[in-house]
Amino acid sequence: MIARTAIQTKQDIQRDASKPPTKELTRKQKGAIVGTMNKAVGGDQNRYALLAWLFDSDKPLSTKELTESQWDALWTWVDFYADELGQWHPTAEFETEAMLCLGETTSIKKVELPEGTFKKIMAFLNGNDVI
Fold first, then answer.
1. CA 80/CA 87 separation, integer angstroms
2. How far are the Cα atoms of 1, 3, 40, 70, 75 from residue 33, in angstroms, in the given order?
3. pLDDT tens column, 68-79
4. Has residue 1 been placed in a domain?
5. Is residue 131 one of the residues assigned to a domain?
6. What is the total count of domains within the chain?
7. Range of the domain at 52
8. Which of 90, 106, 108, 117 is most deeply buried (CB count within 10 A of its CB)?
9. What residues contact 53, with CB distance under 8 A and at least 6 apart?
10. What angle separates helix 92-102 from helix 6-17, to the nearest 10 degrees?
11. pTM of the full predicted structure?
């Protein structure tokens, strides 16, 4: 599957967040989203900036302020899958889309990106499938 642009990602997340949640996420599931987002974008400050951009907040947005519908939209976006050892991971598209969306924010903190991130972004920008 090919990652979406930042604008497409934001529109899809906002559309999903405008609907009633399909289920209430557990504390563990919410923690998995936070940890996965932090890993993808380099920490809390960038996650706050990303959430603010995704949900049109005029200030950094903490997950403590999210509605259940917003949590549900983020769960759908991360789209966890289990590997052959039973470990849960986000899809490759999530990591690429998160970085593309972070690039749209105005308050990015300098971070060390996870290995392979730049390669994924360049592949996406060049129209190649993201691996």
1. 10
2. 21, 18, 10, 12, 7
3. 999 999 999 999
4. no
5. no
6. 1
7. 6-125
8. 90
9. 10, 101, 102, 104, 105
10. 100
11. 0.78
